[in-house]
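quick one: zinc ion bound model?
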Amino acid sequence: MPTDLFRRRLIKGFACIGAGAAVLPCCLSHASYAAGTGAKFALKEVADGVYAFGGVNELMTDANQGAICNVGLVVGDEAAAAVDSGGSMVEARAFLAAIKEVTDKPVRYLVNTHMHPDHIFGNAAFRDIGATIVGHRNLPRALAARGDFYLQSYHRQIGDALMQGIEIVPPTQTVDDRLELDLGGRKLELRAWKAAHTDNDLTAYDPATRTFFAGDLVFMGHLPTLDGSLLGWMRQLDELAAIDAAVTVPGHGPVPSAWPQALEDERRYFEVLAGDLRKAIADGVPLDKAVQTAGLGERGNWALFDDYNGRNATAAYAELEWE
Ligand SMILES: [Zn+2]
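yep, here:
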């Protein structure tokens, strides 16, 4: 079992894979975009001057052009900031073209919410237009450690054509704790979090519209993927819930979603998973047995559960064993 899990992890890399939640109109349009039917990459205005594209809930593939995560845009009087660059250069270029249709302001910043390929594989397109790429203080180190592996493993998964032009481009400005980006008459508040989904989670909050770009600290409809710390993620749920947002753009899930209700499903999943694992550890059940049943009560509530619950349980067992 551990061998299988490890192999799956190698094959699939560490992407936060979006699975099919509710079939929403936005997802249908993205599926069309992804399938190359000629449909355009369309940004939805989720609040005044705030836009988002909802990624299709699938694994990254050549067919969906890697467009599986949600990306966003905040437009000020002088400049705009994009949130995540998408899972390929094809997607990033479509994103930039869609930005031009909603604003003539320059994209001064690209905010990377974390290291995963579906969120950062389009970075080079933003670097090339002169955007400052902003990330968590741990992001440069994470990309240095994981970048080559991402390029190799995703080459196998999405193929030559879609890999074209993809580079691992680290941030040129990092956030230790908090940072405000000035867009002219509008400030975007960035916040670096402790280890949770990854060790480099960064969020963006627009106080003017109370819109919260949560990155992969919020998964909806499809199973959260754990590449950081389960306990860290659980500990920060209350801090997240306290953010005075009206709506969120989650890393994966409906765009936009009500806040803080968006946290409810993942909180419940984490509690079930941690509860099952704590009991197994207390009962002396070894890892390879424990991960086969931990969290199973949540199976019906999530898409891609079978793909990722075992990996989450394996990571969480090791963490909880030393609690
Ligand atoms: Zn992720």
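Confidence is low (pLDDT under 50) at residues 1-32.
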